Amino acid sequence: MIAILTDRMNYTDGDMVLAFRRPFILVLTCLFVGAMYHEASAQQIPCPVTVNPTNVPDGSFNAINCAITATGGLVPGGTFTNQAGATLDVNGGFISLGSVGSSIDNAGTIEVSSTIGITGPMFGRYTQTIGSTKVDTMLQAFEIDFQGGTLTGTGTLEPTGGPLTNTGATMSPGASAGTLSITGDYMQGPGGTYAAEIAGLMPGAEHDVLAVAGTATLAGHLSITFINVPAVGQSFTILSAASIVGQFDEVTISGLPAGVLVNVIHSPISVIVKIVQPEPGNCVSDGNVLDVDLGALPNCAVSIRPQTINVVCQTANNIDLGNPGATVNCFFPFFGMVTDVNVGLGIVDMDESTLSWIDNLKVSLGHYGTDVTLYDGAGDTDDSAMNATFDDAGAAPPPTVGSVIGTFKPFGPGTLADFNGAEAFGYWPLNIVDGTSSGDGTDLTSYNIEITFETTGTEVAGPTADDIDTNPATVVANNVSETGIITDLVVFLDIGTSYIEELTIDLSHNGTTVRLYDGDDDGLQNTVINALFSDDAMGPPPISASAIGNFKPFGPGTLSDFDGMELAGLWELTVFDGTLPNDGTDLIEWTMYAATASECVVGGQTDLLDYDTFQGCISGPAGGLPNGACQCADFDNDNDIDLVDVGELQRTFSGS
Length: 656
Fold this sequence. Notes:
This protein is mainly beta. The protein has an eleven-stranded parallel beta sheet with strand order 2-4-7-10-13-16-19-22-25-28-31, with no helix packed on it. A ten-stranded parallel beta sheet has the order 5-8-11-14-17-20-23-26-29-32, with no helix packed on it.
């Protein structure tokens, strides 16, 4: 039977159900003021249904237990309700939430695989209570709220009216491994879950990545599933963001054998999963710690030196700007001395699938005042792109005309070896300048930095505090129990406020005070501090803008003023607002990273002489220090020298 309805049907109240006794072909041009229902049964409209195109400017479009394919467009003016058991496949067409009040409420299955996908930049709301959403292209709405169910795919979600919220759903990029991108902010509540799979080192292809262009506010659950067993020392960046607030409340790990330990690190702009060595045991299994155990120590200690960590950094659109260009920051969250650096870059015009003129670009990498030029183009060749690794071991520098694909030495001036000996921890800004034809749509599609470093130092997290912009000043105290003689100190501060330029911030310990920041009240709103303070940085922080990156302390004083002091004891961060106090400034994070002298023999390095001295201090679990000279071997300050202290000694071992 073929049924063709060519006349207009006006149905303005209640619901309309079309029922036929035999199979049919139905062609409708519809204007609905009420609701349109698709119900799957033998006597009613059979599934699947193809929408091609259907406009619903009023009322709602309600899919009940039916498969709908939008091949020519679906423009709901009211609410599209995809109920439990229903499937909507946006394949070849689109859904537009282009009018006030438009919304999609999903409790079934929605798959977005067409080029346009779901759009609604100015209006519209996308809400999921149960069910699933798979986005392989674009889902755009003024509000995007996942209250339950699952979100998967390798596409892009674009919330235009605020953060994408996950209050009770499970977000899992890819179908297996993949990258799911959010163009704005992401907020995960206590009931939300981020489920990441890890099979290998390659981001997006072998392990999941959630890439957030804005701020990621984290809470709730992180679930990590390992498909393969990784090696000790390997790390995986599973989340990147312009900034991160908070951290996951609960972490569960599956897929690893007993004895393999995982460290989840929340840096200011990424979440990194690192495989670490188990705590040391008795290396000869005889119940005693003797010479033979010390000799076997390098094979069973807490940490392996040197370590190589690959961190996936932020990407960015429209980076081809004139001087001073675009800067993309990458934060390396591990403390140690750099011995080797490699950089991976992908630069392309995503709108055209190729960059028109990378030969106009100059790309440089900076860290603590050292700057190395990776690439410096010199021509105007069409259809060129970059997919390159920069390594001092490369055969030659990159070509200056045409595409740059492969492994190359840095163009220069400078080599990546110029970073050797520097502190690895901190920001590694990538600066990109377009010297000829700026603003033609160049995108940084990938940026990763691989650093080999020798583990050093102690990380000390201080307490956070709300409303620290006061007059008289607010003092935030941290009683540090970790011990060691300070040889180098860096301080990370994350402070959110409306007017940071009004603040002065001092760090004090053992009667010494160093001014980290001193603002100039210029009335600029929405400014923040997300900065690492180090004596090795190029200059002090700006006084009339946000301070994001690496900076010297403002002064008076430098962080080297603390060198030679015992790390343990009272540290105080003093914040004073001299202009407009109590406008809601919060101390989000305060962390100190201290390199300390931990050897028991003076000589500038921890070597076999120190092992000899250390051996005479071992007291085992019974406790007690054999003599006063053994105090320096008591790393955990528990008044006995045991396997924990042995492991700490190995962390600083540098040779014979």
